[in-house]
Amino acid sequence: xxxENDKYFSKTIEKGLLILSLFDRxxxxxxxxEISQITGINKTSVFRFVNTLxxxxxxxxxxxxxxxxxxxxxxxxxxxxxxxxDLLQGVKPIIDKTSIQHNVSIDSALLFGRSLxxxxxxxxxSLIYSRLPILMDDLHARALGKAVLANLESEELTEILxxxxxxxxxxxxxxxxxxxxxxxxxxxxxxxxVNNEEYFxxxxxxxxxxxxxxxxxxAGAVSLGFRAAEFPLSIIERNxxxxxxxxxxxxxxxxxxxxx
Amino acid sequence: xxxENDKYFSKTIEKGLLILSLFDRxxxxxxxxEISQITGINKTSVFRFVNTLxxxxxxxxxxxxxxxxxxxxxxxxxxxxxxxxDLLQGVKPIIDKTSIQHNVSIDSALLFGRSLxxxxxxxxxSLIYSRLPILMDDLHARALGKAVLANLESEELTEILxxxxxxxxxxxxxxxxxxxxxxxxxxxxxxxxVNNEEYFxxxxxxxxxxxxxxxxxxAGAVSLGFRAAEFPLSIIERNxxxxxxxxxxxxxxxxxxxxx
DNA sequence: CATCTCCGTTACTATTATAGTACCCTTATT
DNA sequence: AATAAGGGTACTATAATAGTAACGGAGATG
Lengths: 260, 260
Hints:
The structure is a homodimer. By secondary structure, chain A is α+β, with helices and mostly antiparallel strands. Chain A has 2 domains: about 10-80, Orthogonal Bundle (Arc Repressor Mutant, subunit A); about 85-260, Beta-Lactamase. The first copy, chain A, contains 10 helices and 9 strands. Chain A has helices at about 10-20, 30-40, 45-55, 70-85, 85-100, 145-150, 155-165, 175-190, 235-240, 240-260; strands spanning about 30, 60, 70, 105-110, 115-120, 135, 195, 205-210, 215-225. Chain A has a 6-stranded antiparallel β-sheet, sandwiched between helices. A 3-stranded antiparallel β-sheet of chain A has the order 1-3-2. The structure holds a DNA duplex.
């Protein structure tokens, strides 16, 4: 929860959106008191806000058990947000083109606060992963994450590292902060990050940062993914890093133009 | 704009969502004064609300030209709304199954207010339409629309017909209210609606209503689509109406269980 | 080059909405 | 029947918003 003292900040809107954002893939129904507990907003206010959202069609209430769910207006809003997000629309054609041209799987993400947001993913037809998260937290175990971390300012990096838990996801996952810092240093000098079966066994990824050329700030990352059985790391580094960095600079140009 | 006298209704939340909903596929950037004009909300309030939405990450502002765009939080919210919308998740497997089993294109929509919301569409691989709308207004020219209209209460029907413009989309589009009423009567007795090249030349659709079995209220519709060149209407009516109505009842059961 | 205009932003209060407590009602539980 | 828990309502002190006014910068216009 934000705690803005800003005069030009509406706490009511913050609360309304906080309530709406409680509904997702894993939480399609919630009760009033549950919402009140989670958000810390008082019961009466939650009642007022939920009532408002129901009247507007963003939520709906089951008349028998009183459980609250997303309404049709949220569904429409969701699609508008998806299709109206200019960064996605800008990034998609470039990733599609590169994926088709070189027959590779590509993933991209944006940095927002301390986590990465999955922006667009294009998979080589034969590869299918299971349901991947929209918000990614395991930055230490991903090519995308390491590409971003390696190019942050040192203050911001230490800030993020403080709250980053180095969870062991595979035998090769980096779990010591010192090892991670060394990896990031190598990443920075190399110009691209390597995830060698650290997130998913049998999968190798290489990643490059995306940045806003004007502000020089890291905005996200792109990665290429390969099956380790088909592509040894040496082959990947020889044949694909050029493709990766070229795509990264194209994407950075787009981001720069949109964020201007 | 709602004008609720309701005591338990937050106008601030209404305004915040009104502002957010101005951003979609066709409007990825807007200025402050533009937002103020469109919404009728006073400039200072728009400034406060937009500022709030920017601080929360739902919008972002270009620092040079001050234009406002969707932010990463909206993108995340959009995906959560899409994947968290239980009606979609409930309807999808049934439509997928039917589409694969009978090799047909299927479209579905929900009634919300006076318009239909496109819920889920599954196309037979060889058919591709251009960008279809999320909100559908031409109810008179669509199988989905006519299936819904034919099963409304007469009061609600006249209410909707009042604001429905019978736009001519193809030579076969129904443009006279009397003809439409006759078609709806036929639709009701038949149990399914027919769109014979009235929306798109060369395409025939048949549609059936979806309803909540408890409340007996029409909730939406499903339709099957065919190329007129391949499937004459007589063949469609002989072979596919059973499939359509069976699917419609399965979907209605889902809707009933979720809306309880 | 001066002026005008538009837009975003800030300052300031009267007015209005919200927070929070208390209380009631319905439903589920024992 | 008693109890508990959750949803919904009433009420008022308190805090937030609406709206007017006014400022400053950027771009347009003469």
